[in-house]
Design a protein that fits this description.
Blueprint (H helix, E strand, L loop, with lengths): L2 E10 L3 E4 H7 L4 H8 L3 E4 L7 H15 L9 E5 L10 H9 L5 E5 L5 H14 L6 E8 L9 H4 L4 E11 L4 E9 L7 E3 L10 H5 L5 E3 L1 H21 L10 E4 L4 H10 L11 H4 L6 H9 L8 E8 L3 E8 L3
Helix pairs in contact: 3-4, 8-9
Bound molecules: oxa(dethia)-CoA (UT7).
Oxa(dethia)-CoA binds next to helix 2, helix 6, helix 8 and strand 12.
Length: 327
Amino acid sequence: MSKAAITGIHGYVPDYILTNAELERMVDTNDEWITSRTGIKERHILKGEGLGSSHMGAKAVTGLLEKTNTRPEDVDLLICATTTPDYVFPGTANLICDMVGIRNIGSFDIQAACSGFLYALTIGSQFIETGKYRKIIIVGVDKMSAIIDYTDRTTCVLFGDGAGAVMLEPNNEGYGVIDSVIKSDGVGQYHLFQKAGGSRYPPTHETVEKHWHYVYQDGPAVFKFAVKNMADVSAEVMERNQLTGEDIAWLVPHQANRRIIDATAHRVGIDPGKVMINIHKYGNTTAATIPLCLYDYESQLKKGDNLILAAFGGGFTWGAVYVKWAY
Ligand code: UT7
């Protein structure tokens, strides 16, 4: 059976940089608190009337098509992981396809908050392994600035906007997605969520006045679950593939908090020098953190490298994917 190999990666972040210094002028915070508690120095924000997640997703996909010499008509399926779709419907995957000239194929969105990219990668790889499709694009994109309350210091310092996209193709030499674990537990639903805007609380003047269209997070509660579950699921996928920290070339963790990343690496015995980190530049871009890490570190990756991708997010959702790098 073929494995689903990542054969190309591209990323995109918008130009505008929101620094800790600018946040200090907006809310009661300071660079020292943000840096020591989260590791974040700056994040990119998408400005511009009428631009949604699809704008960034399309930029990442256009770059990916160019880099991999792929014509739009050769793509078999596109899956977009996002928590900030342009519309309630149609899906952002549909919009991205339209913007880059991909037509008449299946495309759909995945909602699994910060774990969305790993969920989408897991789903996409099944279509390759069964032999159904040969070229699949997985996009992780979020315009978190659309749902952040820039008067709430507990959330506005954390998030940024960005997109990343990978190409999946069959590989018969054992490279690609080797194993994956995805999990969820609704116990987390009230600790990290956007209360209004969906079918339970459709938009009203009252929902707007109460700030229910913004991200709410009980940070310490989420922190506790994140530290435990991201580490546990990474350990699970490593153990069942007989891998120790020594065997891993790179840990590719969701970038929510530098302290959660360090705790995960410590728990699974991966040397800090083998952990991809870009949280200082982008903050938490939700579904885009993992592909943006792969994009930033692409030149350091070698064929045959063992990678553990790990994420934790709203829901709660979490997961880990073992990838043998293919190029
Ligand atoms: O990606 C999806 C999953 N999300 C996560 O994994 C995030 C998990 N949670 C976290 O990363 C951390 O909980 C935060 C970074 C969100 C917060 O860090 P913390 O160490 O848990 O701080 P805290 O919420 O316990 O707040 C400590 C203090 C509080 O003040 P008091 O009550 O001790 O006086 C907060 O009001 O820090 C205060 N505080 C701030 N101070 C300055 C909260 N936000 C800020 C801020 N600037 N931006």
